[in-house]
């Protein structure tokens, strides 16, 4: 039985995201409600802006979390309770919807641990849905040669998150007039500096396949738009696409 998706309270959903970053399904469900009801508009113009600023993750990362929830909720509870991580949900997504519960329950009945690998192994290859090609933030297919650099975005994401963490820690320390921070008198300037660092770091983040060379190896090397990386930042994308 498919569960009904209910509308939530924006503040409460943001609280869940902040407090429970480790729980992919709770976070995914909160994100799903925010995206579906467009309640992010309370603070941001677009879903992408909300993801970038509120949860420090890309919209495609948030969309993956939402997909995990949708897959989990597409099967009855007796099967869905065995789906506890995103990898299992991702594997299950490649199984046709009407066979998902059966695949999980068969594994349980055979006392095989329900994992990404066991899910994929338990269905004949012909039955698996074609795995989705990896797409950039503009929904363009990413050429194989660029996949390694695309998958390293987390290295930059960690620094962006650290930067946001410092920014909010400094802001709350100053707002609370904590004696420890008494010599930091120009909080506005510190906030501007940190925002500037965040913006600079964001320029390193691959956002989309370069619109000039299309990431094609032969042309890419001499491409002035992406400096040979084959991918551009969101900032450069907006300027050059
Ligand atoms: Zn290029």
- Give the class from helix and strand content and strand pairing: mainly alpha
- How would a crystallographer describe the biggest sheet? 2 strands, antiparallel
Overall pLDDT confidence:
84
Order of helices and strands: HHHHHHHHHHHEHEH
Q: Strand sequence of the main sheet, in spatial order?
A: 1-2
What ligand molecules are bound, each kind once? zinc ion
Rg: 21 Å
The fraction of residues assigned to DSSP E strands is under 5%
The CATH topology of the largest domain comes to Arc Repressor Mutant, subunit A
Helical segment tally? Answer: 13
CATH class of the largest domain: Mainly Alpha
Write a compact overview of the structure shown.
With 241 residues, this protein is an all-alpha fold.
Any overview of this molecule?
By secondary structure, the chain is mainly alpha-helical. It has 2 domains: 118 residues, Arc Repressor Mutant, subunit A (Orthogonal Bundle); 97 residues, no CATH class. It has a two-stranded antiparallel sheet with strand order 1-2. The model has no long low-confidence stretch (mean pLDDT 84). Bound molecules: zinc ion. The site of zinc ion has 7 residues, from loops. The site of zinc ion (ZN) has 7 residues, from loops.
Explain the layout of strands and helices:
Elements: H1 10-19, H2 24-37, H3 47-54, H4 59-73, H5 77-80, H6 86-93, H7 100-109, H8 116-121, H9 147-150, H10 153-175, H11 187-202, E1 208-209, H12 217-220, E2 231-232, H13 234-240
Antiparallel strand pairs: 1-2
Helix pairs in contact: 1-2, 2-4, 4-6, 10-11
The chain binds zinc ion (ZN).
Residues 210, 212-213, 220, 223, 225-226 line the site of zinc ion.
């Amino acid at each position: 039985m498919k569960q009904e998706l209910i509308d939530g309270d924006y503040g409460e959903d943001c609280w869940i995201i902040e407090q429970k970053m480790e729980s992919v399904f709770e976070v995914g469900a909160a994100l799903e409600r925010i995206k579906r009801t467009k309640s992010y508009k309370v603070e941001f113009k677009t879903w992408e802006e909300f993801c970038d600023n509120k949860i420090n993750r890309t919209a495609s990362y948030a969309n993956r979390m939402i997909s995990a929830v949708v897959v989990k909720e597409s099967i009855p509870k007796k099967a869905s309770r065995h789906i506890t991580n995103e990898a299992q949900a991702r594997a299950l997504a490649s199984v046709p919807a009407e066979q998902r519960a059966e695949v999980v329950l068969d594994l349980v009945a055979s006392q095989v641990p329900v994992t990404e690998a066991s899910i994929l192994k338990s269905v004949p290859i012909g039955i698996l849905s074609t795995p989705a090609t990896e797409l950039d933030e503009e929904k363009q297919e990413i050429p194989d040669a660029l996949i390694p650099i695309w998958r390293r975005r987390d290295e930059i994401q960690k620094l962006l998150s650290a930067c946001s963490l410092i920014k909010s820690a400094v802001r709350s320390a100053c707002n609370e007039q904590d004696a420890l921070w008494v010599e930091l008198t120009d909080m506005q300037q510190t906030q501007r500096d940190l925002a500037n660092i965040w913006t600079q770091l964001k320029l390193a983040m691959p956002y989309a396949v370069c619109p000039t060379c299309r990431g094609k190896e032969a042309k890419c090397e001499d491409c002035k738009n992406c400096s040979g990386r084959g991918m551009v930042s969101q900032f450069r994308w907006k300027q050059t696409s």
